[in-house]
Design goal:
Helices cover 67% and strands 7% of the residues. The protein has five helices and three strands, in the order H-E-H-H-E-E-H-H. The chain has a three-stranded antiparallel sheet with strand order 1-3-2. The protein is elongated, with a radius of gyration of 17 Å.
Length: 163
């Protein structure tokens, strides 16, 4: 699959997630943890296919991942968890959206610095960056959800049946 097509698909999926969460949606564990795992797997697969991966590439990858995970965790603290129909629901707030924008800007800044330092552009897959960020968010949301004592919403039968 062409890189630009993969990036377009990932960006479209993230936009769908953000829009759904801005409106509020049942908190389904599979949705919260599934997207980061899939994106991380795609990103790691992309890294595994690289012919050259230097120590410098690795350092910048670790730095970018730590920052991305941290910003995802911060983003999770700005979400609203609430009960509806006996299960947990999640809604992004304006602050959440603001942290998304900040995350994008910081990630582009780190990418620019990494490229300036000689990091191979493919050593920082977009899918991995987004996956790490969503993982940070998922871990904090999961912890917050557990402390409520409310159950996660059951998975829906089909994506088409979602509101």
């Amino acid at each position: 699959m062409r890189t630009w097509l993969l990036i377009a698909l990932v960006v479209a999926a993230v936009v769908v997630i953000v829009v759904r969460r801005l409106r509020g949606e049942p908190l389904v564990a599979r949705d919260v943890f599934g997207a980061p795992v899939i994106l991380l797997a795609i990103g790691v697969y992309g890294l595994a296919k690289l012919e050259i991966f230097t120590f410098t590439d690795g350092l910048w990858l670790v730095l970018g991942s730590a920052v991305g995970c941290g910003l995802g965790a911060v983003r999770a603290t700005t979400t609203k968890l609430f009960e509806r129909e006996g299960v947990l629901w999640l809604r992004y707030t304006g602050w959440t959206f603001g942290v998304w924008v900040l995350s994008l800007l910081v990630n582009f800044g780190i990418g620019f610095l990494a490229t300036t330092a000689g990091v191979h552009p493919d050593a920082r897959p977009v899918t991995l960056s987004i996956g790490v960020s969503l993982l940070g968010e998922a871990l904090v949301i999961g912890k917050r959800a557990k402390t409520t004592g409310l159950p996660f919403a059951p998975p829906s039968e089909s994506l088409l049946s979602r509101r």
